[in-house]
Design goal:
Helix content is 30%, strand content 19%. It contains 22 helices and 27 strands. The strands form 6 sheets. Strands 21-22-23-24-27-26-25 form a 7-stranded mixed beta barrel, surrounded by 4 helices. β23, α19 and β24 form a beta-alpha-beta unit. α2 crosses α3, α2 packs across α5 and α18 packs parallel to α19.
Length: 643
């Protein structure tokens, strides 16, 4: 039997395990990336492991999230990360050099390699044929130290692309169509692999847009073949030697097949407040627009910027619309500055932002109250923009630019002739904003710089025999990490200060939660389906750990968050009968009697409701390694013990 691309990548990096769907596999990691919103904690964890030098082929620390410096906190975090990176052998991408996924695609990613990053959109690297996965910061720190990265062997879904995109239809519309078909839950436990004749019609930046938003499916990752299109992109980046061919065998067998005719797609939009609430732009109709934001790791490539500039050229942004544009990297910004595209944007009335995540992570550009904002981003979760009652729509750069001109949601096919944009044969190469780490000899004298806002990693204890605590919070389906641990300009500077951060935990759902669990001293959270979807931020596990959450019991979990809970030493459990979720009331006294012994012996777990006298059967999907992590009180304790 032939192999898929994903299976080939996993097999070539397999350290342990059985490549049967549902079984745990351990993988050798070639590259890692971090960003500053999650990176500070990842490097605190690396320091706690007392590892002199990273063991990966390449590790890069990016500064792209917390670039709004309204106090010393972000600057201190950047200084800390740069000093650790310089000392421990990590390349450091300075603020202004660009968004981690865009820069990594341009300058560092290699087909056939494995990459994990402390950012859920790390699968962007799948656009050039990498096995690229988002992970918690602690998992990334372990990988930097030479440790194995573990995942549950996914099922492989083939998305068969035929035809060619029509004028004004974009790669963003492809992934929105996949989200419409599969939903935000549909990719859990799966790798999405793109194939078919339509693949060759898509450039690497377009492929990267599609793999980037595969994170919104809940997928482990997404991947494209590495072909002549990939080779041409790497050659233009001066990296042709990094190219290898990578394709599925003709007789490869997939667990599921989805067919998409590119020529049949129309401009699409994801409606508030979830990326899978997808309709065609024409079906939604001409709603009034207050704000348009173009950029993010999804749509900030040179190709995206050139299309936007061509649409805006010689026109003026509607007076009632605020248009902001953030090129994805210094390379992109420099190239549109030199070829005149930047001038066309400025002439039209666009506000040019720095090459960073910016509004996508809630770092500025919050819309007006009850405002409608069209964004080329990847998430439109409620409140993520910084305005609680705003309506956020996810669209392509073409839809965004057209709508900025008219003042209402506009099908770009209503515009004049489609601008044909071709990528250059050579990109401007200037890596002077990437700091090369010190040599091992030089590193001995490098001091790691800590700021007063950087607090120690929260401690945890080995698992107790019994857990008895109140149901301190009950939440519904599709709870995101933005619900659990919000982002935004007011909160992000404290990502390295768990005690301060804790006062915002679950603030979107229940502002009283932090004080209530502090008063109790401990608690159990009850959740619905797909609990923890969204970002890879381990703070959504570390802050509950700090507050005293002992267990989270749900209908189902998102992959990365479940792994982060295990890493934090918080046991993730599921109801065997999902209807039991409705039988628990907030404030009920709950007991997991003998839970430690049950895990050790792989016995069924039972939740007793001491308030009502009822009992509910629970299940847990833990490998032997994950059981040991939970019993040790988390991955850091487990790693120290193992070392």
């Amino acid at each position: 039997m032939g192999m898929t691309i994903a299976q080939k990548l996993i097999k070539s990096h397999l350290v342990s395990g059985d490549m049967t769907a549902g079984h745990e596999v351990g993988l050798k990691i070639d590259q890692t990336l971090t960003q500053d919103a999650t990176g500070t904690m990842a490097y605190l964890e690396l320091e706690a492991m007392d590892i002199d030098r990273v063991k990966t082929e390449l590790s890069v620390a990016y500064i792209d999230h917390n670039t709004l410096q309204t106090g010393f906190e972000n600057a201190d975090d950047h200084r800390f990360i740069q000093s650790v990176a310089y000392k421990r052998g990590v390349y450091f991408s300075r603020p202004g050099n660009g968004i981690c996924h865009q820069v990594h695609l341009e300058r560092f990613g290699k087909p056939g390699k494995t990459l994990i990053g402390s950012d859920s959109h790390t699968p962007t690297g799948g656009g050039i044929g990498m096995l690229a996965m988002g992970a918690g910061g602690l998992d990334v720190a372990v990988a930097m130290g030479g440790g194995t990265y573990y995942i549950t062997m996914p099922k492989i879904v083939k998305v068969n692309l035929t035809g060619k995109l029509s004028p004004w239809v974009a790669a963003k519309d492809v992934i929105l169509e996949v989200l419409r078909i599969m939903t935000v839950k549909g990719g859990v436990g799966k790798i999405i692999e793109y194939s078919g004749e339509g693949v060759s019609t898509l450039s690497v930046p377009e492929r990267a847009t599609i793999t980037n938003m595969g994170a919104e499916l809940g997928a482990t990752t997404s991947v494209f073949p590495s072909d002549e299109v990939t080779k041409a992109f790497l050659k233009a980046q001066g990296r042709e030697e990094d190219w290898i061919e990578l394709k599925a065998d003709e007789d490869a067998v997939y667990d599921e097949v989805i067919d998409i005719d590119l020529s049949a797609l129309a401009p699409l939009a994801a409606q508030p407040h979830m990326p899978d609430r997808v309709k065609s732009v024409s079906e939604i109709g001409k709603i009034k627009v207050d704000q348009v934001c173009i950029g993010s790791c999804t749509n900030s490539s040179l190709l995206d910027m050139m299309k936007v500039a061509a649409i805006l050229k010689g026109r003026t942004v509607c007076p009632s619309v605020s248009l902001s544009i953030a090129p994805g990297s210094k390379q992109v910004l420099n190239m549109i500055a030199q070829n005149g595209a930047l001038s066309d944007m400025i002439d039209a009335g666009a506000r040019i932002l720095e090459s960073a995540c910016g509004p996508c992570i809630g770092m500025g550009q919050s819309p007006n109250s009850k405002g409608i904002s069209l964004r080329t981003f990847n998430r439109n979760f409620e409140g993520r923009s910084g305005t609680a009652d705003a309506g956020i729509y996810l669209v392509s750069p073409e839809v965004a630019a057209a709508s900025a001109l008219t003042g209402y949601l506009t099908d770009p096919r209503d515009l004049s002739e489609f601008p044909e944009i071709t990528l250059p044969e050579e990109f401007i190469i200037n890596d002077n904003m990437v700091v090369v780490p010190a040599s091992p000899d030089e590193a001995k004298d490098v001091e790691v710089m800590y700021g007063p806002n950087i607090k120690p990693f929260p401690t945890s204890e080995p698992m107790a025999e019994d857990i008895t605590a109140k149901a301190v919070l009950i939440v519904g389906d599709d709870i995101t990490t933005d619900h659990i641990m919000p982002a935004g300009a007011k909160i992000l500077p404290y990502r390295s200060n768990i005690p301060y951060l804790s006062q915002f935990c679950f603030g979107v759902c229940d502002k009283t939660f932090p004080e209530r669990i502090k008063a109790e001293g401990k608690g159990i959270i009850i959740g619905g389906a797909n609990y923890g979807q969204g970002s890879s931020r381990e703070h959504a596990a570390l802050v509950p750990l700090y507050l005293g959450v002992k267990a989270v019991i749900t209908k189902s979990f998102a992959r990365i968050h479940c792994a982060n809970l295990i890493n934090a030493g918080i046991i993730p459990l599921n109801f065997v009968n999902p209807d039991d979720y409705d039988k628990i009331t907030q404030g009920d006294e709950l007991s997991l009697e003998g839970i430690k012994s049950a895990i050790i012996s792989s016995s069924p777990a039972v939740l007793k409701n001491l308030t009502t006298g009822e009992s509910y059967e629970l299940k847990y999907d833990l490998s032997d390694r994950q059981k040991d992590i939970i019993l040790a009180g988390g991955l850091l304790n487990y790693t120290k013990k193992s070392m």
